[in-house]
Task: structure prediction
Amino acid sequence: MKDKKLSKKERLFCLYFSSMRNAREAACSAGYVMPFASGAALLQKESIKKEIERLSTEKNVSDEVGAGFRRLAFGSPADCIKLLFREEMTDDELEKLDLFNLSEIKKAKNGSIEIKFFDRIKAMEHLSACENAHESDEALPFYEAIRKGADAINGVRFDE
Result:
C-alpha cells in the first residue's frame, strides 16, 4: 500500500492527536463532521499512524502534561455552558462539544443541572511548577512517574 500525501485536515488531525491523545477531540478540532467515526477511521490509516509517530517523537511527556494544564487553565467553558442551556441535543451535537474542562455534572430530580469545572488556579499553579522545574532541569516526581509509565508501556527498561 503506497502512502499518499496527507491532506490539510489529516495533518491537523495528526497534530491535535499527538497533543491530546484523543481521536474524537482531535477530529473535532481538525474540522471533521462526525468526529468519533472519523477519528477511529483516521487512526487505521498507515500514513496517519506514521505522521502521529513522527510528531510524537518530537514531543516529550512534559510537553503533553503542560498542554493539558494549559487547556484546563485557559480553555473556554463555552461548550459546557451550551450544555446547560440546551433542552435537547443530538448525539452529533454532543460529540462536537469540548468538555475537557468539565469536572462533574449532576442532574437533580427537579430537572436542574449542576456542572463543576476543574480548578483553573490549581492548573495554573501546576503549569507554573512544571515550567519552573523544566527550566531548572529538575524533574518533578509527577513527571518522573509519567516518564517511567510511558517507558514501561513502550517496553523501555530503566534502572531504579
About this structure: The beta strands are 102-107, 113-117. The chain has a mean pLDDT of 79. The two ends are 43 Å apart (CA to CA).
